Structure formats: C-alpha cells, structure tokens
Amino acid sequence: MGLRSAWLVVVFLFLGVTVAKNVSGLNVWPMPKWVSRGHRRVYMSQDFQLVTDGSKYSDGSEILKDGFTRMLDVVKVAHVVDGDLSSVDKSLIIKGIHVLIFSPDDQLQYGVAESYKLLVPSPEMPDYVHLEAQTVYGALHGLQTFSQLCHFNFTSRLIEVHMVPWTIIDQPRFSYRGLLIDTSRHYQPVPMIKKVIDSMAYAKLNVLHWHIVDTQSFPLEIPSYPHLWDGAYSVSERYTFSDAAEIVSYAQRRGINVLAELDVPGHALSWGHGYPSLWPSKDCQQPLDVSNEFTFKVIDGILSDFSKIFKFKFVHLGGDEVDPSCWTTTPHITKWLKEHRMNGSQAYQYFVLRAQKIALSHGFEIVNWEETFNDFGNKLSRKTVVHNWLGGGVAEQVVASGLRCIVSNQDKWYLDHLDIPWEEFYKNEPLTNITNPEQQSLVLGGEVCMWGETVDGSNIEQTIWPRAAAAAERLWTPYDKLAKDPEKVAGRLAHFSCLLNQRGVAAAPLAGPGRGAPIEPGGFCSIFMKIVQNGRTRSAMSAQLSLFVLEVFVVES
C-alpha cells in the first residue's frame, strides 16, 4: 500500500466517527458563539418574505434586500422548490424572516459591529424567523448562518429547517479576518474576483487584501499616471479604474472591505514599463529609484487615486524583501546617497517613512510587511499596522512595542504552500504567547494569503477552499469554543466544503493536500450528503465510509 492510500484510510476511518457526531448537531461553519436547538422540523413557505417592521435601518441602498435574495438563492441550491405544502401542518410553515436592525448607518469600516441574534422560529411570531443585529452587516452574517440551517429535501421538494427551535447568538472574535489575492503574478478576471468575494461571505471573512501590482505586472489603471498599466501582461489583462470601484462596491455590499496594496519600494519593476525613469537604470530595475523626486510624485498620484475608490481606512504599502544593491551600484543614486549621508539600509528606511507620510496625507492608516518593523520599528508611524508573515514571535514583539499587528505567518497561513494541511490552518493561533489583554487588543486579526505564482482563474478556488475556512473559524469563533484537536471538527468542515461545491464554489476535497483532486468516482461529498439526508446511524456511517476506504485502497494500491 502506498503512503497516500494509508493516509486516506486513516482520514476517512476517522471521519466515519466524526461525521456521525455532527449529523445530529450543528453543521454551521464557522461555529457561532452560543447555540441552543430543539428536535422539531419546520418548512419554508414558497413565498418566503423579508419583513423589516420596527427596524431603524431603512435599507435605501438595498444591501439587506440583496442579501436576502442571495440567501434564498443559495438555500434553493438552484433547484425548483415545487413541493406541496397543502398537507403540511400550518404551524410548521415559516412564512418569512423578520429582521430588526438598530443602526440606520450602512457605512462599512474596520470595527463595524457584526454581531447578530437568530431565533428560528421567533417566540413572538412563530411563523417567522427573527433576526436582529446592530448593523446591516451583522444581519448579513445572520442570513449566512440561517442559510446553513436550511436543507432542500429531494423527496418533498421543500426547504426544511431541522432541529428547531434554534437560538444563535453570535459575534466575531477578531475584527480583521482576511484573504489575500494576488493579481500581478496571474491576472484574475473580475468575475472570478467576485466569486471569491461571494465565497468569503459564506465563511464570514471580511477583508479582501488585493495585492494588485508587483514585479511581474501592473494591471490597474491609474488616472493620474495613465502609462503605469503599460506594465500589464497584455491589453486584455487589465482593470479599469471603474472595474476596481465595482469590485469595492460588490465587496462592500457583502460586508467585505477591500485593502489595496501598493508594494514599495521593492516588487515594483513593472512600474518602469510605462515610466522608465522610475527604474534605477535599464539594467537594474528595482527597487524604485529613491533618489528621484518623480518616484514620490507617482506614489502620491496613485494614493490620491486610491482614496477615491478604496474606502477602507487602511492601505497596504508593502515594504518587504527590499534589496538595496541597485541603489548602491547605480552611479547617480550612489551620488545621492553620499550627499544625504545614507547607506542602502538607511535609504530603505527613508523610502518607507516617506511613503507612509504620503499615505497619511490622503487619510489612510498604513499596513506594512514585517521587515519594516524588524529593521526600524521604532521609526514607523504610530498609525502603522505590522503585517507578520515570516514566522512566529513577531506579533508579540509588535504589540509589546504598542503597534498593531495582523498575523499571516507563512508556515501556517500561506495557501500557495500546498503541503500545509487544513489542520495547521485551524490550529494557528494569532495570540500565541500574548497574554496581556491590552496587547491582545492590538492584534487586529489574521489573514490567509493566496499568492499568485501558481494560481489563475482555473484553480484559485480549489487552492483557497476549504483550507481558508479552517482559518476563518479560528478568527471568528470564541477561543473556548474552538476545537483543541482539529479532527473533532473534520466532519463539520467536510460538510461546509461540500456546501461550497453545491453553491458553485470549486472547493477541493477535504481529505488531501491543498488543491487536491477527487479520489475516485462518487467521492466524499456524495457519501457524506447521503449520510446526512438519510439520518444514518453511527455504525452505518462508519461501515459505509469504511467500504469507501476499502475501494480507495484497492484502486490506489
């Protein structure tokens, strides 16, 4: 038997036990803060309605209405719900959902209230679901949770909610729950970016970190400097300024902020295709020329344009992996360094701090990769958020200095590292060794990073999911509700991965490395969903999954 076969046997035999534990429990991902449930079943009316009587939120922008429509779409899973309700006891039919939102404001920003309370059904209105939230964005999370309680019954052809009455009280553990996508290494079409945003909302992630440009390409239109996107791969692999505004709006209506990244001074070779004077020389093309005032005028123009469409309070200015050797070997720059009494390292600090001042002048607070903190942390603006990626121990140093931090350590939360299994994503704790409550509050949250060297529109979804979902629960669910052993949640995560597939998201199978292929015809989702729908006993589930493992064993061996 090969190693792969042996590993699959262990995984699926274990899932045979874990799935059984979760079939009779709550199959919602991420796990809410507090849950109680009953043992009855109710049915959704075929004209299920949204009711907002008494809400202070007018929904003039129709964010709630659109969220409700999306919820109905994913609940139906593209099926025709044409079952006959005439024979169903009317007391078991849910006519709609009553949503009560206390804030009239729908401005989305870091730290917006995302809590909600969900009652299925409402004690006061037993033929309605009751959802209340401080903001419309909390209500959107409540709708996502409700969607996971609903099931299409292929026999009755009705939407059912099992185990009512439900009471769910929920709020996120961290206010920053991010996913990075990289559109420089491979261009991602706008429809694919929107699909990623939709899937983020399913997992309650709330920040899309858009690493827009890098060494390889500059695909975004910048009105102030229109030749910058000459650095795109091709004329068709570009984003207009309006495209970017549409992506921001699309995300905002789903409760997701967009963090734009302009990585400087390194990772910027592509800038010089449109403006060659930004290169130190034709033969040495990055970092950006620190001695040229035009460099900082371009940065100012880009950030000015950014401020018109990217409404998140933060902008990411990169600052990682800067090799100053082009500066110290290019004659006109070495002359400038000598005049300003700087070496390469000091010039790196000068560049980062000057870029920070430009960003601050446009109303942004700054995120920088951790090298800036490691090299000159005491010089950074106090409005800096340090983005940890190189490894452990940095976050505790950052918060001890009084700065804020985002955790993305590459050995646990880099999605392009296909050898990192979902269990490691789940176990990665942003507050490791940070015990002081004041310092804990400086950790904004965390982010999983989908770097683009080996992903394009054909495989980005299966590389992100389901591993990103494991991190999403770590960032959402209260610490004391998280499983100490990730295998305890394997069945529930497998259910969520199957749910993503049903919703049109190309999540990879849970049992395997990142971006793994299905094992054999039928696969895990089909067996898992049959078990859930048929309500099999624990022994029957284990037996069927064991037979599946035996089949895999024979095929793989």
From TrEMBL:
It catalyses: Hydrolysis of terminal non-reducing N-acetyl-D-hexosamine residues in N-acetyl-beta-D-hexosaminides. SUPFAM superfamilies: (Trans)glycosidases (SSF51445), beta-N-acetylhexosaminidase-like domain (SSF55545). Its EC number is 3.2.1.52. It comes from the Eukaryota. Residues 28-149 form the Beta-hexosaminidase eukaryotic type N-terminal domain. CDD domains: GH20_HexA_HexB-like (cd06562). GO terms for biological process: carbohydrate metabolic process; glycosaminoglycan metabolic process. Residues 174-478 form the Glycoside hydrolase family 20 catalytic domain. Keywords: Glycoprotein, Glycosidase, Hydrolase, Signal. Residues 1-20 form the signal peptide. GO terms for molecular function: beta-N-acetylhexosaminidase activity. GO terms for cellular component: membrane. The active site is at 321 (proton donor). Belongs to the glycosyl hydrolase 20 family. This is Beta-hexosaminidase. It comes from Populus alba (White poplar).
